[in-house]
Amino acid sequence: MPIDQLPPSSVEHLHGPKQISYGEDELIVLCLVRDGRPYVKSFIEHYFSLGVKHIVFMDNDSSDDTVSAICRYGNVTVLRTNLHYEHELLMKQYLIARFGKSGRWCLYVDIDELFDYPYSEVVSLDSLLGYLKSKSYTAVMAHMLDMFPEKALSGRAGNPDEPLKEVHRFYDISNITRRSLTAKPRILSHYNTTYESHTMEMFRDGIRQTIFGPSVMLTKHPLLFLDGELEAYDGSSRWVYYAKVADLTGVLFHYKFLDGYFQALSTRNVREKQYRHQTGKYEMYLAGMKKSPSLQIKQDSAREIKGVNDLLEDQFLVISEDYVSWVNDQEEKNVLLQASQGEKQEPAASSLAFSQQQRVRVLKGQQHAQQCRQVQQLIELQTAKQRAERRARKLEQQLENMQASWSWKLIKRLYYIKARVLLLTGGHLDARTWSHG
């Protein structure tokens, strides 16, 4: 169903401006939501603190008070549609086509995802967009990171305005599976997308796979520049076509494990089959919660988040030399600005030198770790190749032994006799007879 053929009655404007004007260094957020009341406060406050200009929500027929909670805020627009969620990609494309401006950036995220990027405490959002534009990037890849509380889930609904970042402080990357995108040429050719850094990887699994079993894709492309060539979410909710992907990755802090809400969400999705291709996954979530009513997500391998830059140390996020140079330049400008405002420069300069040394150390650590992973992947590929070659030689030997056996010779002799009989009786041979003869 093309966007321009959407039935007029399928989308209703509920709140806020119908059109948003924003500049090259500004960003709008687009979000499709259903029954997302527990996330509203944390979601809106996070993105406005990040520097986002406007947020557009498309409510997918919520039954709770999601819409009324959103409408309490300024700089938001709310639409409503009762289309079935099977039209998810269509609804995303509609939001981008209607509110995304040509030659501008937009960020598409789910209501339970809070986007962040390396050194965001130094590099403001407009500065990040300036960096991306200077390099002609049209997309930023990000990985979902499941966040969870220290306490076990009780199954009881809590505070609807729970401060998610304060309560859900823990994460676990011990079970994340990494695959280099350069080792997946089929993906690159299918989406006609180029990746500036050859170290880019896609992630799967993580703590949800550890606790519940299903394999989960964690990689998305949420931050998009609408240059007229990029095609967003056409056949995929995570990948984009004809994009030039940046040399850094972002994180989508993912708050799936809200007490009470997680079970209610899984129950509804199984009952209504809202995510038809993911029903089995939600059934596994329910089975896990039924087996363990007081479910403890936090394992011994969990870590407490202090800030987004922790994920650089953990090799979860990627940065490049160019991006680190940009961060250092931005920090130097901040120091000069503070000095011009009468603040003492010496402590700031000392802190500046230390932070720059730390970034160089992190970058070198990442490069070393990436090299080690690449070597390990090459070893695994070589081992798999050798295993396949041994298997092929074994099959060839088995075939040679079979052909040399008495039973094989007898079969060939019988087919020869059958051929002779058919020729003498005026019959004919089909292709199969000839092939065995």
Work out the strand percent.
15-25%
Tell me, what's the shape? Answer: globular
Q: Show unreliable segments.
A: 431-437
Through-space gap between termini: 57 Å
Helical percent range? Answer: 40-55%
Let me know the average pLDDT.
85
Please provide a written account of the structure.
The radius of gyration is 28 Å and the shape is globular. It has three domains: 317 residues; 77 residues; 31 residues, no CATH class. Strands 1, 2, 3, 4, 5, 6, 7, 10, 12 and 15 form a ten-stranded mixed beta sheet that branches. By secondary structure, the chain is α/β, with parallel strands linked by helices.
Describe the structure concisely.
Helix content is 43%, strand content 18%.
Which descriptors apply to this entry?
disordered C terminus; single chain; 437 residues; two-stranded antiparallel ribbon; alpha/beta
List the helices and strands and how they pair.
Layout: E1 11-15, E2 27-33, H1 40-50, E3 54-59, H2 66-70, E4 76-81, H3 88-99, E5 105-108, E6 113-116, H4 125-134, E7 139-146, H5 164-167, E8 170-171, E9 176-180, H6 185-191, E10 194-195, E11 201-205, H7 207-212, E12 219-225, E13 231-232, E14 240-241, E15 244-254, H8 261-272, H9 279-291, E16 303-304, H10 310-313, H11 321-340, H12 346-404, H13 406-424, H14 431-436
Parallel strand pairs: 2-3, 2-5, 3-4, 7-15, 10-15
Antiparallel strand pairs: 1-4, 5-12, 6-15, 7-12, 8-16, 9-11, 13-14
Helix pairs in contact: 8-9, 11-12
